[in-house]
Amino acid sequence: APESILPIDIGYTQKNEISSLSNKTNLLIAALKHQFLSERRLRESTEELQRRFRLLFEQATAGIGLLSADGKISIANPALSQLFSRELDGQDFSQLFDSPDVIQEQIKLLVTATGVSQIDLDLELTVGTEKRFLHCLFSSINDVRSEARENSEQLVEVIIYDITHRKKREEKARYEADHDSLTGLLSRRAGLERLGQKLDGQTEKELSHSQSVFVLMMIDLDKFKPVNDTHGHDVGDVVLKQVSQRIIASGIDTDAVNIRWGGDEFLLGMSIDIEDLLDGAAVSDPKLLEKALIDSVAIENQVVRLIDAISSEVVINAELSVQVGASVGVVLLAPNKGANIDSLITRADELMYLTKKQKTKPYTIVAYG
After folding, report:
1. Pairing of strands 155-162, 63-67
2. What is the dihedral sign for C-alpha 94, 95, 97, 101?
3. pLDDT 10s digits, 206-220
4. What counts of helices (H) and strands (E) characterise the chain?
5. What are the strands, taking DSSP E only, across 225-285?
6. Whose CA is closest to 329, among 344, 342, 318?
7. In this structure, are residues 225 and 359 in contact, taking their beta carbons and an 8 Å threshold?
8. Radius of gyration over alpha carbons of the chain, in Å?
9. Pairwise CA distance, residues 347 & 337, whole Å
10. Which of 97, 106, 204, 245 has the fewest C-beta atoms lying within 10 Å of its C-beta?
11. Are 335 and 213 in contact (CB under 8 A)?
């Protein structure tokens, strides 16, 4: 109880060695009292600070952990343990995620590299059948004291936020922006971007000596307007949905780009290995190759199969079934032929309208150029 320490008062009034000793003793007592009181205030302040930090650590909504240099979890707050539904002390942090190699590399970079003190990553983990996304902020912790502790090691702090809901909202918004709301096919904008990527991918294949033919089909439904006018837009919407599914199912390229171009028009783009179209035959002359592609039974069968699928009866309900047809313009881009996607679409559109006008057969196939 340092506040109860009092100076010595012996009632001595003479000015001699005894009074001098009494005064100096009282100065020492006062200094001791001040030191005791200061140390107590410092201890109380430190304990309050520790209590607040402990409360912040334990009550934080973000997961907080301390990792050793080898990536083991030294300390984990309750929020971090809750994120992974397990006790984490001593666990290898990287093994909690679907991409442990990436995390190990980042921890190593923080521990060993100079000038790198903070890294943030969006990481995935699979819990049962559910995919979750976590935002992780890694920070290196350095000993700032003038003399380093014996056997001290570099530590890494990690702060984690669950961003699964945000990611899912972003994915949903991106899907809705890129896809037609009625049919689920790619929208015109997103489809054009994907077609351009597929066309660029064909060029890369040619550089690696794996040749393929780029096939673009513009499809317009026949007799759709009478169905819409007679039975209403709800029936028309059912037809468009059914046709969209049939277009997807009929493609020989599982990575085909299927687009609702607008109204009752659809655009289909795919890359097909040239050997599949020519049945293994080798054609070196460019003009003969183009003719061989146009006459390819595989291409013609694909187009006929697509038109037959679209033209099949669409069952609306027990009392009503309707039927539409299709006019298709097909453009083939042979290997080593250069073209941009806009010119190919324009040509396919011209061929589709030519097919609709001539009415001799429901498709026209040409090689671009």
Report:
1. antiparallel
2. positive
3. 544 557 888 999 999
4. 11, 12
5. 257-262, 265-273
6. 344
7. no
8. 38
9. 15
10. 204
11. yes
Query: ∠155-158-159 over CA atoms, to 5°?
Result: 150
Tens digits of residue pLDDT in 177-193: 999 999 999 999 999 99
Single-letter amino acid, residue 262: G
CA distance 216 to 301: 15
Q: Identify the burial level of 184 via C-beta atoms within 10 angstroms of its C-beta, where 0-12 means exposed, 13-18 middle and 19 or more buried.
A: middle
65 beta partners: 76, 158
Q: CA distances (Å), 256 to each of 195, 198, 248, 252, 350, in order?
A: 9, 9, 8, 8, 22
pLDDT grade, residue 9 (50/70/90)? confident
Q: What 3-state DSSP class applies to 199?
A: helix
| pLDDT in the model for residue 350 | 95
Residue 84 tokens, joined? 């992974």
Return the bridge partners of 363, or none.
328
User: Which H helix or E strand runs over 148?
Assistant: none
- N-terminal to C-terminal alpha carbon distance within the chain: 100
Task: List, for residues 275-293, the tens digit of each pLDDT value.
Answer: 767 765 555 666 677 777 7
User: What are the CA-CA distances from residue 113 to residues 103, 107, 247 (Å)?
Assistant: 15, 10, 54
Total-model pTM: 0.67
Three-point CA angle 272, 273, 276, nearest 5°: 100
Asked whether 198 and 212 are in contact (CB, 8 A), the reply is no
The amino acid sitting at 48 is E
Tokens representing 311 are: 């033209």
Read off the DSSP letter of residue 182.
T
Rounded to an integer, what distance in angstroms lies between the CA atom of residue 57 and that of residue 72?
19
